């Protein structure tokens, strides 16, 4: 990033940096995949059906960058494409498949029955993403409103989804549409003047969207429609497979067994990388890897560190199969200059370059949308579409090495997008050093909540967890206080209604900081998720762990922003911004010229809320149960308008809430949760969120806790290039959740994740020296210490270009620690001598009914320990016993008995009886 900024200054000839965020767009595809097979029976090569290589899913935003919506795979050979339609009667029909000769196919079908049909689309025997698709067939006469089009079935986040509504002969009536789902979807309509309306909506998050089409306030037939939107539109997808070997493993291998198997491949030079295991359609296990050199490779498959039967296997790679970037042919003027808002196209020919992945990154003032088309002759046509003028850096690599001429410098001219930018910079001083025994404080702002529902815990480096005190400093501003007992990194968890607040769990170092930098800055709050026009929207930034430096805050969007900054002088600050015009904005946060994790943040600013501010929530439940109705109340307090509410489940499914007027201005809102986990309830008034919306509620058991996840191992320290390294992610007692591991650095890495007893083992092999950042998220929240800064040293095995990202995601299972170590507080190591304790008093000899019977214990010379007193009578324990410390380890004890008989009085100093104990007392 520093290189790009410097290049910009030198090119435009100015000393002052322009207030923009450099953006990165990336494409990675394997242009040539080869499939080999090894049969353990006859050793013959047999063609196998394996159409989808191992995929690595990526976050929306890697470390400081957002990526282009792309995933292109060119297969070396194409075997089968198959489509079937299952009719309502149960019969199966075959549609017509037409090849469009542009990398896509068209499926045409003429229905013969009315009702819901299912379209099965398979490629090489496996369902394509989203298959089977459901569609409804009407046989109604004209005069009805109907809707059709792909946008009613599926879509890709970040890309418009389209469908058509036909109102021919339907008469007069109001036509209304609504799209509900995990994100706000902007809807645009166009009247075609022929009785049809073209509708387009833009989903910005993956999940299931409900599309409602009403005519005359009634749903049309088939409405609401359910469309599945994939996340590929906002992610950079990468296929890191060069060839695949099919190996027949002995016996039956279950899906659970695959999770405990790991594989690695060792090249003739000694380079060892993890490779991937996947069940093939044949039922066997496929081993996928990228060949980097010619010769015999050794593939090892292990279970819990032990070779399986017939492992290791040998695979031979010829020189022609190894990718050679020097043989890639690139042509086109678009690598020298380009135009904004236009497709700038160049061609890439990899046919004679062997097997390898082609990666393209374009870095500059805007995120350039990338498209790729595979021509009939095997030559790729790649185009990019920037939105801002300026100089762009284009990195083009094949098999992890730059092609000739890369990186290219491209001058882009033309009109910009007229987006307004505002930026402030503030110097952040080093927070005061904390020591053992001093009062430590963590501050955060959360307006509009009830402080009684806040709770905080602090876990020491030794694993001891204790409750922490929360104080309300002023309205909406809270501070967590605790007194540490040891040096090191503490974990501070802050929860509201048993759900982690944005930013939690926090890292808090007692004593000197071990590291510093932008990767240790945290930001969170409602102002980074959504905002409202015409008022200040707030979020928190915590820089305490990052040390001293300069914090830069930038807002970019349709209009200028007013930014306010308040320093709390304890390593935290709160930021507020005010925008007059609604729309989509970007908030960039940089520390010492580097983006902090997950920056830039995309925020949608809604119109001014109006009377929605008057509404308040009452009797909101603490939790709910699956399949049991739950309700709460809304008071309008005189506001006039329409109230509506929807609930969104953890899986992204959205459903209407039932709203009923109770009395005057009070309404009840009821919903029926269908799955466990944290649900979001959106409450809107006149189409605008009320201040407390979205409300969050935990349904059933959701015990996934990122604060309980820990990482350790050599893979978190200094690593060597070309050497396989690993780390352990301990998820014991952290519940079940989604574990996402992302590695950003100067090179792509082969990475895998294996199930082990204490959690999950992640292995990777860096190819280029430099700093890597390892992000570990559990259910979407960073664990303490994440992102981890890792330094790789050694030879450069892959040419460095733009920042590369590798990722793996695992749905975890319940893990319980097998060790016998105690969880919770640990007793100190006392040094004492119980034989030096004395005790005297009438209460050790004789006692009286319903009176205070007293004795004393003197342990001034017995060292340090805990005094225990217990009294047991003929009918069980004594009713009342009180022990009071009088100072200098001298104690006074009295007790009351209610029954006659013999009692036993026990006095212990630590684990040992004092002289005379146990005592026999008559009553």
UniProtKB/TrEMBL annotation:
GO terms for cellular component: cytoskeleton. GO terms for molecular function: actin filament binding. Its main location: cytoplasm. It is found in: Cytoplasm, Cytoskeleton. GO terms for biological process: actin cytoskeleton organization. Filamin repeats lie at residues 82-137, 137-229, 227-317, 320-412, 410-510, 513-605, 622-699, 701-792, 829-923. InterPro entries: Filamin (IPR044801), Filamin/ABP280_repeat-like (IPR017868), Filamin/ABP280_rpt (IPR001298), Ig-like_fold (IPR013783), Ig_E-set (IPR014756). SUPFAM superfamilies: E set domains. Pfam families: Filamin (PF00630). This is Filamin-A.
């Amino acid at each position: 990033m520093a290189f790009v900024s410097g290049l910009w200054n030198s090119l435009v000839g100015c000393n002052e940096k322009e207030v923009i965020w450099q953006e990165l767009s990336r494409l990675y595809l394997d242009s040539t995949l080869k499939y080999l097979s090894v049969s353990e029976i006859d050793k013959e090569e047999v063609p196998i059906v394996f159409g989808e290589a191992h995929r690595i899913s990526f976050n929306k935003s890697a470390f400081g960058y957002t990526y282009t919506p792309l995933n292109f795979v060119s297969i070396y050979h194409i075997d089968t494409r198959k489509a079937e339609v299952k009719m309502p009667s149960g019969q199966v029909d075959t549609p017509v498949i037409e090849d469009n000769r542009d990398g896509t196919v068209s499926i045409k079908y003429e229905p013969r029955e009315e009702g819901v049909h299912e379209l099965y689309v398979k490629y090489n025997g496996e369902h394509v993403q989203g298959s089977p698709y459901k569609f409804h067939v009407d046989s109604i006469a004209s005069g009805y409103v109907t809707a059709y089009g792909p946008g009613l079935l599926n879509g890709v986040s970040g890309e418009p989804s389209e469908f058509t509504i036909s109102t021919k002969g339907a008469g007069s009536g109001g036509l209304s549409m609504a799209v509900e789902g995990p994100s706000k979807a902007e809807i645009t309509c166009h009247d075609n003047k022929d009785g049809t309306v073209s509708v387009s909506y833009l989903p910005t998050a993956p999940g299931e969207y409900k599309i409602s089409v009403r005519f005359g306030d009634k749903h049309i037939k088939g409405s609401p429609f359910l469309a599945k939107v994939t996340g590929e539109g906002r992610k950079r997808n990468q296929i890191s497979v060069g060839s695949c070997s099919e190996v027949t493993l002995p016996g039956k291998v279950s899906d659970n067994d695959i999770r405990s198997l790991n594989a690695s491949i060792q090249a003739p030079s000694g380079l060892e990388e993890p490779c991937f295991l996947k069940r093939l359609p044949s039922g066997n296990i496929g081993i996928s890897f990228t060949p980097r050199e010619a010769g015999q490779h050794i593939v090892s498959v292990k279970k819990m560190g032990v070779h399986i039967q017939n492992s290791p296997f040998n695979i031979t790679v010829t020189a022609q199969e190894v990718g050679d970037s020097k043989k890639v042919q690139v042509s086109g003027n678009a690598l020298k200059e380009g135009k904004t808002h236009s497709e700038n196209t160049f061609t890439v020919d990899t046919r004679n370059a062997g097997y390898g992945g082609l990666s393209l990154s374009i870095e500059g003032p805007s995120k350039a949308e990338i498209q790729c088309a595979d021509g009939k002759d095997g030559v790729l046509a790649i185009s990019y579409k920037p939105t801002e003028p300026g100089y762009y850096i284009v990195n083009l690599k094949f098999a992890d090495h730059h092609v000739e001429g890369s990186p290219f410098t491209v001058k882009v001219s033309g009109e910009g997008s007229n987006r307004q930018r505002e930026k402030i910079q503030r110097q952040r001083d080093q927070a005061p050093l904390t020591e053992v025994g001093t009062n430590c404080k963590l501050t955060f702002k959360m307006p509009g909540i009830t402080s009684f529902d806040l709770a905080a815990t602090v876990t020491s480096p030794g694993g001891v967890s204790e409750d922490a005190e929360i104080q309300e400093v002023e309205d909406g501003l809270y501070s967590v206080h605790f007194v540490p007992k040891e040096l090191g990194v503490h974990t501070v968890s802050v929860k509201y209604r048993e759900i982690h607040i944005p930013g939690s769990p926090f890292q808090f170092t007692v004593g000197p900081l071990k590291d510093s930098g932008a990767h240790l800055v945290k930001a969170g709050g409602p102002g980074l998720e959504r905002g409202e026009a015409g008022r200040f929207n707030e979020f928190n930034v915590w820089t305490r762990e990052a040390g001293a430096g300069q914090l830069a805050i930038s807002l970019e969007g349709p209009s200028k922003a007013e930014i306010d900054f308040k320093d709390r002088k304890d390593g935290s600050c709160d930021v507020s911004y005010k925008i007059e015009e609604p729309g989509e904005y970007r908030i960039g946060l940089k520390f010492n010229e580097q983006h902090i994790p997950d920056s830039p943040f995309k925020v949608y600013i809604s119109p001014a809320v109006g009377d929605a501010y008057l509404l308040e929530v009452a009797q909101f439940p603490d939790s709910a149960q699956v399949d049991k109705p739950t309700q709460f109340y809304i008071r309008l307090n005189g506001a006039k308008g329409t109230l509506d509410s929807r609930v969104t489940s953890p899986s992204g499914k959205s459903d209407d809430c039932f709203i009923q007027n109770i009395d005057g201005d009070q309404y009840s809102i009821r919903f029926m949760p269908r799955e466990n986990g944290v649900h979001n309830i959106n409450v809107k008034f006149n189409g605008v969120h009320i201040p407390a919306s979205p409300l969050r509620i935990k349904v059933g058991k959701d015990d996934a806790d990122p604060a309980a996840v820990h990482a350790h191992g050599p893979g978190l320290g200094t690593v060597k290039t070309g050497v396989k390294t690993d780390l352990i992610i301990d998820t014991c007692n952290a519940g079940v959740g989604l574990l996402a591991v992302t590695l950003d650095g100067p090179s792509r890495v082969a990475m895998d994740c294996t199930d082990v007893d204490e959690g999950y083992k992640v292995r990777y092999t860096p190819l280029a020296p430099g700093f890597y950042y390892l992000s570990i998220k559990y259910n979407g929240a960073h664990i303490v210490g994440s992102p981890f800064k890792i330094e790789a040293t050694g030879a450069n095995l892959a040419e460095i270009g733009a920042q590369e990202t590798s990722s793996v995601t695992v749905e975890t299972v319940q893990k319980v620690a097998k060790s016998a170590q105690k969880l919770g507080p640990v007793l100190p190591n006392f040094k004492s001598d119980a034989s030096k304790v004395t005790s005297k008093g009438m209460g050790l000899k004789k006692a009286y009914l319903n009176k205070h019977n007293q004795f004393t214990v003197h342990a001034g010379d017995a060292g340090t320990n805990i005094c225990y007193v217990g009294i047991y009578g003929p009918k069980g324990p004594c009713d009342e016993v009180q022990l009071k410390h009088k100072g200098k380890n001298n104690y006074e004890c009295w007790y009351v008995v209610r029954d006659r008989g013999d009692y036993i009085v026990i006095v212990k100093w630590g684990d040992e009886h004092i002289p005379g104990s146990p005592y026999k007392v008559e009553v």
